[in-house]
Amino acid sequence: MTDEKKNPKGTAENWEPRIVCFFCNWCTYLAADLAGTSRIKYAPNTRVIRVMCSGRIDPQFVFEAFAKGADGVFIGGCHPGDCHYQEGNYKALRRFHLLKRVLKGMGIEEDRFRLEWISASEADHLKTAVNDMVAKVRALGPLNLEIPAKISAGEVSA
Amino acid sequence: MSDNKNKAVQETLAKGAAKADAAYMSRRITIDPITRLEGHGKIDIFLNDAGDVDRAYFQVPELRGFEKFAEGRLAEDMPQITSRICGVCPTAHHMAGTKALDDLYKVEPTGPAKKIREMIYNVFMVEDHAIHFYFLGGPDFVVGPTAPAAERNILGVIGKVGVDTGKKVIAMRRRLREVITTVGGKIVHPVFGLPGGVARRIKPEEQKHFQEVAQEAVEFGKFTMKILEDVVLKNKEYVDLIVSDAFTHKTYYMGLMDENNHPNFYDGQIRVVTPEGKEYAKFPTQKYLDHIAEHVEPWSYVKFCYLKNVGWNGFKDGPDSGVFCVAPLARLNAADGMATPLANEMYQKYFDALGGKPVHHTLANHWARVIELVCAAEKFQQLANDPELTSDNIRRLPTETPKEGVGVVEAPRGTLIHHYKTDERGVITMANLIVATQNNSARTAMSVEKAAKGLISKGIVSDGILNEVEMAFRAYDPCHGCATHSLPGSMPLAVRIRDLEGNTTSTLRRDSDGSIHKE
Amino acid sequence: MTTNEKPKVGFYWCASCGGCEEAVVDLAEDILGVVGAVDIIFWPVALDFKTKDVEAMADGSILACFINGAVRNSEQEEMVHLLRRKSKLVIAFGACSHLGGIPGLANLWDKKSIFQLVFHDGPSTVNPQGTEPQPKLEDQGRHVTLPEFFDTVRALDQVIDVDYYMPGCAPTPKLTLQALQTLLSGNLPPKGTVLSPDVALCKECPRIDTKPEDLTITEFKRPHQVLIDEEKCLLAQGIPCMGPATRGGCEALCIKGNMPCSGCFGPPGRIRDYGGKILSALASIVGSKEDAEIVKIMDSIPDPIGTFYRYSLPVSMLRRKKMEVVASDKK
Q1: Do the chains contact at B63 and C222, CB–CB below 8 Å?
Q2: pTM
Q3: Class of A19-139 per CATH?
């Protein structure tokens, strides 16, 4: 997309970061839709998963994303006070902070995990945040967790 | 082919074969695994051309890395984490860790908490020593080292001393373990340890029960000593074996002593005596690094402790070798007496019988162990009768910023050292653990090699050596002492004789019924 | 000595502390009933274990093999593969084989860093020649071997197929006896069953009645920082207790010892990553909506991995810490 795309030394030239995004239905997902209809371009490295609320996000989802090959995970939810379910995003915020520490302890750099409050109208904000994250993850290089493709049976069942 | 040419060919072949044989400098006997104690261990014995033992390696094939993965953990979690080093003596690690926390936070446990801890610890010593005597090392003695293999186990012990004794031992073990469960939550990996105290009060009705069990324990201790006297000490053959040279090493001896130089399993200063029995050093536990160092060999994962200031001079005896010894034999040698009356009487008798202090006979560990069992039982009784045991005042909250702490106890198998460094939040930055058995690892290796050398010659392997080589390390009761259980028979054992290529040339097998077969 | 009627049973230990062997022995008098009904054909701790003998047995001729301990070296890996072939059923006994156990915390490091500390940098270690244990050594013509130490600790089912799991560190005698009786009865539960009730510990905790409906934490307290009330729910006292995400069956022994649950039974069913679940539960009850305040509260759990994954790091979804360079691992 741009010429700043330069992968770190030792990484394949055509490697592209893969960011798994969990967007809440009422805010961030709509912002992504708005970006689409407004033809606002942003990095194509996202894999979006729609959840009803950022509070739905179980840390196990985040682990699974990394274990299955994601180089970064991005959570998008409603601004504090605006949650469609009142308190869900606060739960997400608290989990995010604790989860971040565990990921760090497991050798996953802080820049690979991000939480943003993006309301339905903030398509630009989404673009900036995603582009910023992709650039940061690109600089870090692929995560390449050495976990076999077959994670043992019993993955998270909602 | 003409006859001459044929002969020449044969000669050449014969010469070649002789050369090859000569090149096979040694043959190898492997005992794998060793039994009736440690789960993981093997002995590799190499023979020279004459069939005598050239070298024997006592190998510990396991390592888990507790000292490394302790980094980043919370200090107050260490007593529970380190107890997983050993599921037979978790209480020892738990206690050493708890005391390290006291030192880390510079907080003195309350009086009642100290008594509760010391009581629990002595209960544990009784229980653990009893298991070793009846199920692990004891059978070698009670039944005899050259008794048929089928009898050299708890069933043989029972056969010798009666079914009632067996039931008594199992019941006593259970009741002692229940005491620890009451105070510590669990018996395998208890949870009572906190800096400055213990987690839980003792209720009056619980104390009453402890007093009953304590009385049983003292009786049980006396009873065990009687068995030892009747079955072992009155038997000249066994006594000859105990004092034989094959099982003797003259090393330094170490133990935790109180201010009267009586062994105190829970607390004290570390005292070391020379092979002649003179005091060599007595120092507070915090200074252990000035005295104890660890040596590495490429053929074992366990490290070998030695006295730093004497130096590592190889696997040797004597005052010029830093090799030292811990556990019952060592503790009694390093002491001037026992802290409790019955045990002290037994202590005097022991040294009188074995020719004064210090006693260098490794197998005497079994006798010393029973004396300690009695001492621990008496101590248990003292503390169980203490009115402060049920006090509410069991915690003193730490106020100091943590930095560094050392906690030392006498585990059943020897001096156990936990050393932690933390940051200001109490997160571990360094952990150094000197586990009891390590202090004995050099001497154990020496004992095994000496026994092998003394017992194997001309490549002849027999049932005697199978057991007697094992007895050499069994006396030390290495940590991870094996579980007690009823055995269907003896320990079948195989000795494989291999050539240098690793091909089995012959196997000697001792089956569960004790019969020996050569294959 | 073996009879044809009695089913054959075996015990083996990998990277273990021996506590699970003690747990079996703690059956005390009850074990006699079991022992009478089976033929213990090997138990390295007590009976001489001969690889050759086990190899000579027909595949599947051992009814059940109870394996405890995590797998962290080459000898353990070979043994468990062998035992799997020879056994109809394999039971992962205890937290180490079930989840990886406390030795699994070594997955935050690798062989190089562990050896560096243990054999070189430790304060009491004196090793000027830089000696390290060698898998193969030639010492003056003598060939001596040791098992190879792996970078990564694995739970049993990450190495072989496992039929049942007996949780706990160590499993309780009560559950162990029940498990043995179930297996001998012939009424086998579905494969993969964890042999303990599928409920959270809170349900059987003696302090459940004191757990408030609305539980909010403004600061987590570490056990040594506060006097612990002997009757009240530990979480309600601010002390991190793993009860909400931990499988019951242990009868809350640690709570009876007035200390919090540390999670040794692992998760109840339907939870894939134990640490993720408990961290989610505890984070949810933190009573703050402000970023900075939340950060401060989380600071009161200074070691999240040791707290949430103490027993289950190897089976977690991330399995191990990503090191800068992890040496080649025999997976």
Answers
A1: no
A2: 0.90
A3: alpha beta
